[in-house]
Amino acid sequence: MADFGAYAVPAVIAAIVLFGFLRKVPVFDTFVAGAKEGLRTSVSILPTLIGLIMAVSMLSASGALDLLSSLLAPASQFLGLPPQVMPLALIKPFSGSGSTAVLTQIYKDCGPDSLAGRVASVMAGSTETTFYAVAVYYGSVGIKKTRHTIPAALLGDVTACILSALTVRLFFSC
Questions:
Q1: Among 6, 67, 103, 140, which residue's CB has the most CB atoms within a 10 Å radius?
Q2: Amino acid 26: pLDDT
Q3: Coil, strand or helix at 133
C-alpha cells in the first residue's frame, strides 16, 4: 500500500492518454492548446497577485498587523477568541502562506494543544483566503464586479472565526 501513491499518478495519466487515443482525440495538440490557455490565464492574473502579495508583505513588515490586532483585542476577548489568534484572523483572507506562518508562530509561542493553538487550527481550516481566491478565479475569467461575493465570503470568515473558539471550548477541554 505504501507504493500506491508512486503508481497512482502515472496510472491516471496513462489512462487519460489511452482514453484520448481511443476517442481519436489529438492528445498532444489538445495538451499544448490547454497549456497555452493556462499560461495566458496565469499572465493575465499575475499583476493582481503581485499587488496582493506586496500588500500582505507590507502589512506584516510595517507592524500594522500587530497594531490592528492589539486594537481588536477587546473585541476578540468579548467574542471568546484568544488574543493570540487575531493576527491569523486578519491575515487569512489575504494570504495562505502568510496565515500558515502566523499559525506556525502561534504553535511555537503557545503550543498546538493550548486553547490558542486549537482555536487557530480550527480557524485555519475553516476560513478561506477570500481576496486571493477572488483575485485568481474572477481574474482568470475577466470578471471585474464581484458584487456580493466579497462581503458574503468575509461574513463567512468572521462566522468561522467566532465559531472556531466556540467549537474548541465546547468539544475540547483546554
A1: 103
A2: 93
A3: helix
Number of alpha helices (DSSP H) and beta strands (DSSP E) in the chain: 9, 0
DSSP structure class, residue 172: S
pTM of the predicted model as reported, rounded to 2 decimal places: 0.72
What pLDDT score does 140 carry? 81
Contact 139, 44 (CB under 8 A): yes
* Longest Cα separation, the chain: 65
Q: Which three cell numbers stand for residue 86?
A: 487575531
Give CA–CA dist 33/139, Å, rounded. Answer: 20
CA distance 54 to 98: 12
CB 117 within 8 A of CB 106: yes
Percent above pLDDT 90 for the chain: 53
- Label residue 108 exposed, middle or buried (CB < 10 Å: 0-12, 13-18, 19+): exposed
